[in-house]
Design goal:
Beta-Lactamase, 253 residues, 51% helix, Arc Repressor Mutant, subunit A, 2 domains, 13 helices, globular
Length: 253
Amino acid sequence: MNGELARWREAFMARVATPWYVEALFDRLPDIVFSIKDRQGRYVAMSEAAVIRCGLKRKQDAIGKTAFDLFPRPMAERYTRQDERLFRTAKPIIDNLDLTVYRDGSAGWCLSTKEPLYDGSGRVIGLACISKDLIEPSRAGLIDAGFADTVDYMLENYDQPLRMEELAQRSGLSQAQFERRMKKIFHLSAGQYLIKTRIDHAARLLASTDMAIAEVAQHAGFSDQSALSRQFRQVTGFAPRQYRQLMRPEPLE
């Protein structure tokens, strides 16, 4: 993005009178929960689906409260651990499987993504979260605590060597069963999901840091720079250096 386009975009967004249009958009999506929290875990904004999920009458009843005020303690503790990891690392949490409780008291699973929110000085001051219900897989019994724990483990240890048979064992499933569940829920094999996770982190580092490409490969869990380059080109169509040049905006004049 050149300097003129960047200035135009910033000027337009500065003219928007309220940032709550995002919340209003998510209000139209009953199977997606949207929320914003500050670093103390207090809710700043929440979509209508989240209000219903928490059994509240209106959004205002959630503002300033934490997950411990609104969810069963085990769920609140899990969400808080995720938030603390994001605040500590400033890295988004992508495609995380979370147990949730629906309005009728039944349990189900959702796929959550959390992104850090920054102030003008670049400090992380909060997070934005969206969670999409996975109703059909949940009802079909495809997701349980062991499977979710294994997906968590993959997301937290993508930079380490991970063997599919060991992941399947961790989930309490055979390797074939584990692969079928991964494909049903994520539309990816376990290996593809792991590559996606690694590519996501590599792309973020390439776009937001000056880290050497060999170092990016190490941080993202690839054996070396050539392995990263090969997989990255296969998935994105770009060499890592080309992707960095594309995504890095030109400095404003």
